[in-house]
Amino acid sequence: MKDHYWRAISIDCIDPDYFPAIPLFMKTSGNYVLYKDAERQFSDADRKRMERTNTEFMYVRSGDMEEIATYLETSLKEMLSSDDLDSTRKGRILYQTSINYLVDAFEAPEHASNLERCRQLVQHLMEYVGKDDNALRSLQSVVGHNLYIFTHSVQVVALNLLAHEKLFNVEPDELQDVGIGSLLHDYGMIFVTNEILNKPDALSDVEYYKIKQHTQKGYDFLKDCSCFNDVSLTVVRHHHERYDGNGYPAGLKGDRIPRSAQLSALCDTYSALTLDRVYRKAVSHQDALRMMREESGKAFAPGLLSEFIELVNEKKE
Ligand SMILES: [Fe+2]
């Protein structure tokens, strides 16, 4: 494995006055080119140049992320409460910070500092969605409705971002859309009553039918909001499709299931199995992977399943 990998930083998060003294890179035709070294300060003129050329992201070496994380944490609260920034920009800043928090938390979930940072993220997310009536408002309803779904959703975001970055090497803007889709993948559960969601016994056919509707209902609702693109919506609609064609809502089979939905199904299943539920206790990491392996060629594409298992095993070591 490479000894460092690149992390994207949204231009919105680079405040000329406070940004730490680290090198920034630009991506040009697939190559990372040094834009400024550690000595030179990122200036207002630089920001304007980026705006003119529609550059949304710059890149830093993963080894510099510690410093970036500290910078983001200290400036986040200030940026979020500033009247000079509009809600879209605040959302992007928050989103950027979420990605950093979550990727780090997943890399070392046992670190108390990562847990604390995750808690902060949840707080910031809540504050933001509380004040903002755009895209992320949807998240608030999910949080209010069922705490399990929120914990699970944040976990699926972390896993899915990591998996998309490591296995498919997707561009930061697509990654962002996958993250938004993952955060809201079970949004449709708000249409299912708490009575069914919290039922400790086996579900009746009618109840199961209602649960299954969450994918299509969530998709229909979020599509009507007109603020989510197809990448995000695909995750919401198709995360319960199965490789053998027996999933829902569309019953897509094999590679007709979009790649992002196949990966989301893996992340979703792993997260759901390893969290406590009302009807059963969490299963261990090893047991979850064993149960998932039994679904090779049934629920999951064999190749993708192996890659996923390798990735989560690597992260658990
Ligand atoms: Fe779901």
Topology:
Blueprint: E1 6-10, E2 24-28, E3 31-36, H1 44-52, E4 57-61, H2 65-81, H3 87-107, H4 112-131, H5 137-145, H6 147-168, H7 172-183, H8 194-197, H9 205-212, H10 214-225, H11 230-238, H12 259-273, H13 285-293, H14 302-316
Antiparallel strand pairs: 1-4, 2-3
Helix pairs in contact: 2-3, 3-4, 3-6, 6-7, 6-12, 7-11, 10-11, 11-12, 12-13
The chain binds fe (ii) ion (FE2).
Structure report:
- With about 325 residues, the protein is mainly alpha-helical.
- The protein has helices at about 45-50, 65-80, 85-105, 110-130, 135-145, 145-170, 170-185, 195, 205-210, 215-225, 230-240, 260-275, 285-295, 300-315; strands at about 5-10, 25-30, 30-35, 55-60.
- The chain has a two-stranded antiparallel sheet with strand order 1-4.
- A hairpin with a 2-residue loop joins strand 2 and strand 3 (about 30-35).
- Helix 6 (about 145-170) packs across helix 12 (about 260-275), helix 10 packs antiparallel against helix 11 and helix 11 packs across helix 12.
- The protein is elongated.
- Fe (ii) ion binds near residues 185, 239, 240 and 268.
